[in-house]
Amino acid sequence: MNFSTPVSQIQNIGPVYQKRLEKLKVKTAGDLLFHFPYRYEDFSKRTSVSSIFHEGRYTVTGEVSAISSGRTAYRRLSYSRATVKDSTGEIKVVWFNQPYLSKAIKKGEKILISGKVIRTKEGLQFVNPFYEKFEKESSLRNKIVPIYPETGGVSSKWLSFIIKSVLEKIKMKETLPQEIVEKNKLYSFPKALQEIHLPSSLASAKKAQKRISFERVFLLQASLLIQKIFLSQQKGVPVPSQVEKIQDLVSGLPFQLTQAQKKAAWQILKDMEKETPMNRLLEGDVGSGKTIVAVIAVLAVIKAGYQATLMAPTEVLARQHFDEIAKLLWRFKIDVGLLTGKKDKLRSKKLKGDTVEISKEKLIEKTKKGELSFLIGTHALIQDKVKFKNLALVILDEQHRFGVKQRAKLCLKESSGIPHLLSMTATPIPRTLALTLYGDLSLSVIDEMPEERKPIITKLVPPKKRDEAYSFIRKEIKEGRQAFFICPRIEEAANKENSVWGNLKSVEEEKEHLAKEIFPEFKIEMLHGKMKSAEKEKIMKDFKNKKTDILVSTSVVEVGVDIRNAGIMVIEGAEMFGLAQLHQFRGRVGRGDFQSYCFLFASSWSEKIKKRLEALLSSKSGFDLAEKDLELRGPGDFFGKRQWGIPDFTMDALRDRSLVEKARESAKEILLKDSQLKNHPSLKKRVDSIRQNLHLE
To answer: Torsion over CA of 462, 57, 647 and 558, rounded to 10 degrees?
Structure first.
């Protein structure tokens, strides 16, 4: 048996289980071995029933005194319910969607239960815990059990049984160069897999996870470093800096550039002068002025006779960029187009700077002929039919929101050389993550705010203080301000009884609630991603033109939306968002000359949630919050785990700067000796598979 052996050839996996495993993206023996546990239960640490006073994770042993099955009143969910007692007391246990357990577990049997205890109307009870029957106490003493991600009909216990059988039969060999393993004192690859799935101790499991994490980070680093080598050997599009034109642009601005903006602009201009393509990330806090820095780069490119393009993650942001940037560039007689797939637009010098609607076909034709210097858009830009005559600059706003393949496709549009790439993000990225996931990009940081920006007053609002907050908001709106209300969902939760979203308000619910019960005197609209483009555009236009007092929205307004008259930001279900994302929401207000406010409404007020949200009060810098978010919530909050194919424990390992730096140094050492990995063919194959998902490849 090897890693590519189909699961159909593995003993005890029939057609039914094959289909179930596909839901977990498990098709081969290798997929099974890389389906890692997300935690472990240490059965050596037991708790008596009488000592369970609070919610948390516990392990108890006891006798089953009652067992039954049934369906919930709401949505008719199946369940098995048991009562387990020990010498100190008894506790309820419920398993949802596992009705068969009422027959598998018998009254009078002794079982071990380990998992989460929550408080319900019936008191404290275990919900969906791990369980195991046993005859002798010694059979479970000091046993460490891996707990795997499950799907319907595939339990963690079954996965553990199958994976153990695969480990006994599969042939494995080392996957990293031996000198790297020895220098960093890592487990061998075979031993790491063995200890992850069948740990001899929790310490061994952790060391095994570190080995797998190191390898994943090492492969990422190697691919990024090879990318740098690749770019250094490619022909770019040298762009003269156009100093006079840029000075003209800057002198006509109604504000002074900060020193950080000037430094970032200079770094970008000097990069674009080179004959190799720029690959730079422009990182700046909310409202720090990244857009004008990007416009400086665009002006230099266009006045040198080339084309530029900017891709934004949402239509709302793309249209806003079009409106604002087109006005700035009109003075220099530059045509700007907007391509979103619906209601495409053109701002033309021939039309005296007026904006008109234009057919997609005509806009694409003008771009292909080189008649259009600057094209702004959404994912519509990466369509095959969109071609440029002489593209020299690609700008990606909030670039970590795009799939890496989409980024690559845009950068490889037809041109006289590989275009320069400028990625922008208003989500400050902790250095460890930037090193790991964007190590191939040069970094420019705008770490100071314009002097005219007033700090936004931020408040946590417990349930009993809501009416007071509503009164304050009413007063502000009557004085001419506008307000955002952010909700984590669009629609009402289908299953409030068993959903983490159950108590959280949706956009639809909140709009109705505010309009009928709180602010009937104000004009209220809602905005979310499922709306049609024309509808979204009209709602944003009305809000910008002060025809709407309150806009209830999902996170579609998280990035870039600039409504200068908006002075109130209210975030419902604030605990469901990361600190960096909350900071993004907060940055949607405070853009005018008046004092602005941000109110955080949480559905839960546990000490853990309160502590995390309080970090938003004490820190005004997105950079500080990014580091705090990394510490509290982990890297998965910044980048989708699926996009990078990184297991949870590797994502968590990215907090470890030492591990990241060691992996990077190890990758450098190998590539200095063997830049094309010709002497490491198996390693090259794995690195190449990652490179295919990264910039420009």
So the answer is: -10
Contact 476, 457 (CB under 8 A): no
Length reported for the chain:
697
Side-by-side strand order, sheet with 482-486: 457-461, 597-601, 566-571, 482-486, 550-553, 524-527
Say whether pTM exceeds 0.90: no
When computed from its CA atoms, the radius of gyration of the chain, rounded to whole angstroms, is: 28
- Bridge partner residues of 376 (DSSP): 310, 338
The shares of helix, strand and coil residues in the chain, as percent rounded to the nearest 5, are 40, 20, 40
Name the fold adopted by 457-619: Rossmann fold (3.40.50)
Out of 23-32, 290-299, 343-352, 588-597, pick the least confident. 343-352
Task: Identify the residue whose tokens are 């907060």.
Answer: 586
Q: What's the CATH class of domain 39-147?
A: mainly beta
The domain segmentation of the chain, as residue ranges, is 39-147, 457-619
Q: Are 499 and 493 in contact (CB under 8 A)?
A: yes
String of DSSP letters for 518-535: I-TTS-EEEE-TTS-HHH
Give CA–CA dist 578/585, Å, rounded: 11
Structure tokens at 373: 């210097």
Cα–Cα distance for residue pair 368/192, rounded to 1 Å: 53
Q: How much is the pLDDT for 463?
A: 84
- The 3-state secondary structure of 128-188 reads EEEEEECCCHHHCCCCEEEECCCECCECHHHHHHHHHHHHHHCCCCCCCCHHHHHHCCCCC
28 and 4 in contact (C-beta within 8 Å)?
Answer: yes
- Helix 315-330 vs helix 533-544: crossing angle, to nearest 10: 60
Read off the pLDDT of residues 125-177 as tens digits, 9 standing for 90 and up: 999 998 888 765 545 555 788 989 888 888 888 999 999 999 999 989 888 99
pLDDT at 654: 67
Task: Quote the DSSP letter at residue 514.
Answer: I
Assign 3-class secondary structure to 263-325: HHHHHHHHHHCCCCCCEEEEEECCCCCHHHHHHHHHHHHHHCCCEEEEECCCHHHHHHHHHHH
Dihedral, 273, 279, 285, 291 alpha carbons, nearest 10 = 50
How wide is the angle at C-alpha 459 spanned by C-alphas 457 and 464, nearest 5°? 150
Residue 582: name the closest of 594, 598, 566, 596 by CA. Answer: 598
Q: What angle do CA 31, 697, 340 make, to 5 degrees?
A: 100
Q: Do domains 39-147 and 457-619 have the same CATH topology?
A: no
Sign of the C-alpha dihedral, residues 63, 64, 66, 72?
A: positive
